[in-house]
Design brief:
alpha/beta, Spore Coat Polysaccharide Biosynthesis Protein SpsA, Chain A, 2 domains, seven-stranded mixed beta sheet, three-stranded mixed beta sheet, 10 strands, about 50% helix
Length: about 375
């Protein structure tokens, strides 16, 4: 009986998240008014990204926005990155947008945060728009849409950074599913007045907000966190907007190997310790409720007791789980992930547990 009570308590916790948090994004339908006149400084930091830049830079040049500049930061690259930057600068010297190239020698390279800070210091516009060198905006309206929800209070706009789809690849679906659920979470928390993160693949914020918190200085020794830790510092309950219009997405190539993805996630998970306490509590509670749900379900099924009540609780949880997931997947153009969503969810839950335990035993040292 105690197991059944615990099982239903966990289901209630899950329903709280799905009915009071995630439903906010599932039902979100704000109409954005485009304003191509907003001044925007796009900042791209690149370290040995020559091949990826050949795709990214033309997509930036084709943006249909009236007032923007492109700031290209070469962070001590050893390939042809700086050569490509200079060629792009020369090719578009008479374009309606301006280009600035910031070169950091290899001996002076101090990591992405330092490179970003240098890029931001060269920005002429109040609004900073970020993506990574291995990303590409999916449309010519990216800049305009990412600034289309602005009002007087807005200091942050959270966008969605998708990964390319690879047919018949379980790893690719797993990576995209994790990205989908993460997006549903941080969009929902922002709509609930509890913004805590964004992704550097698609993120905008005010230069004055960056300066107000003294940039990355409070977490400069944390290798990761140039996006989520900064947003956690700047954000409050009313200054953050989201942009979930498909034409505002960026897309990038997903890791091709499980080990590569795990290495990436090991780095990302280390920033969670620096989140605000209420956010850490909610994120931890959600994860533990997911893990406990599956463990208790298996234990109760093996025991053979109270099977009708166990099966009812199982389907009750998944009714609201599928409701939110299917709506979020539709908004974020990931509908192919819904059918086998429980399989992906179970895989990610136990992968996250593995990463957490591994980080405890051997903290990551290489980034």
């Amino acid at each position: 009986m105690l197991l059944l009570i615990a099982f239903y308590f966990i289901i209630l916790v899950q329903l709280y998240f799905h009915l009071f948090l995630f439903l906010k994004f599932s039902n979100y339908s704000r109409i954005h008014a485009k304003d191509p006149s907003v001044g925007v400084s796009i900042i791209i930091c690149a370290k040995n990204e020559a091949d990826n830049l050949k795709e990214l830079l033309p997509s930036l040049a084709n943006q249909q926005h009236e007032n923007f500049e492109i700031i290209l930061v070469n962070d001590g690259s050893e390939d042809e990155t700086i050569k490509i930057f200079r060629s792009f600068e020369k090719q578009y010297s008479k374009a309606v947008f301006t280009i600035k190239v910031v070169h950091i020698d290899k001996k002076d390279s101090k990591g992405k945060k330092s490179a970003l800070a240098q890029g931001i210091s060269h920005a002429d516009h109040e609004w900073i728009l970020l993506t990574d060198a291995d990303c590409v905006p999916v449309s010519h309206q990216w800049i305009t849409l990412m600034t289309s929800a602005l009002n007087e209070q807005t200091e942050i706009v959270l966008g969605y950074g998708a990964y390319e789809k690879i047919e018949r690849s379980f790893l690719n679906k797993l990576i995209r599913f994790e990205t989908l659920v993460t997006g549903m979470q941080y969009f929902s928390y922002a709509l609930a007045g509890k913004p805590y993160m964004g992704v550097g693949r698609n993120l905008a914020y005010k230069k004055s907000s960056f300066d107000r918190v003294d940039g990355f200085s409070n977490h400069i020794n944390v290798k990761s966190g140039d996006d989520d830790l900064l947003i956690s510092e700047i954000a409050d309950d009313s200054n953050t907007q989201i942009c979930s219009i498909r034409e505002s997405f960026t897309i990038s190539i997903a890791p091709k190997s499980l080990s590569g993805w795990i290495k990436q996630k090991r780095r990302h998970i280390t920033t969670a310790d620096h989140y605000k306490n209420n956010i850490k509590f909610l994120l931890g509670l959600f994860y533990l409720s997911q893990l406990s749900f599956y463990i208790l379900f298996v234990a109760l099924m093996i025991s053979g007791n109270f099977l009708p009540a166990v099966i009812f609780g199982f389907f009750l949880r998944f009714l609201f789980w599928y409701l939110n997931l299917s709506k979020a997947a539709s908004k974020l153009n990931e509908k192919d992930l819904v059918l086998f969503g429980p399989l992906y969810e179970i895989s990610i839950i136990f992968m996250q547990l593995y990463i957490y335990l591994r980080n405890l035993v051997t903290p990551p040292k290489h980034w």
